[in-house]
């Protein structure tokens, strides 16, 4: 019920034209500037704006211009597997082996891009359902230090978004420049609506410009999809760290009654339960120590029992697992790297 009550005004605040104009500037998000309090949901502001621009998330419904915009974007997404694959087949007889391998890699990379876009479109409501939860989490922390951590999280998320986008498009820029110098196409894709132009110069520049636009579009879609999980996890880390600090101060306020201490403890337990499947290993290991070092001696018997239960549950290992087989962490990454090095040797 709480989520339903929060989601409606939150979506109005995000999607309304008035509030769209009042969103923070990119420089304010990068450096954490602005008089108003920062919210965790602002970490995802640029991603959702980009998805609106790419047609994955409609800007306005039931408008012919928006509908044409979405149709063109989806045409570019659905076109990429066919154009890349057919272009790769055309180069098998003429291009060098290194060029063929490079085009094959690009073809494999774009095969799943339309599917990822479809999945995000279908489950977009589910993704946005986290917004009222983050609103509720932000409301728990009103101290200057806590709000500073949330602001730093938003700034760091924006920097991560900017850096990843820059690296993706830097690769694209190098590819464009190399193709321009060698008088070739960047990715040699198959474009039937330009390849059949009779005049060679017009055909080359029409094909080249569309490939540049198409590649920039695909790179933008790809990097926003790739950076979303990292930003989401970064926000979880921030709130888990805030929870750890909050738990360490339990029982430290002499003005609190036993009932208030109990309510505060219950309020802390709710958060890890909601995010138990998504917490980070590093921060979750600090939670039991924070519980142990809180001022539990000043609490009554009921709070002490609940503290023991809380510490017992917090000692359970929390990890990310892929396909119920592999842990997603640096240890697995290092093991895979070592295996690859051994195979090469």
Automatic annotation (TrEMBL):
Keyword Nuclease: no
TM ranges: 67-89, 101-123, 160-181, 212-233
Topological category with respect to the lipid bilayer: Multi-pass membrane protein
Localization per Swiss-Prot or TrEMBL: Cell membrane
MF terms (GO), sorted A to Z: odorant binding; olfactory receptor activity
Any one Gene Ontology BP term: signal transduction
Keyword Membrane belongs to the record: yes
Domain of life: Eukaryota
Keywords of this entry: Cell membrane, Membrane, Olfaction, Receptor, Sensory transduction, Transducer, Transmembrane, Transmembrane helix
InterPro entries, A to Z: 7tm6_olfct_rcpt
Gene Ontology cellular-component annotations: plasma membrane
Annotated PANTHER family: ODORANT RECEPTOR, ODORANT RECEPTOR 19A-RELATED
Family: Belongs to the insect chemoreceptor superfamily. Heteromeric odorant receptor channel (TC 1.A.69) family.
Name of the protein described by the UniProt record: Odorant receptor
Protein encoded by which gene: OR8-1-1
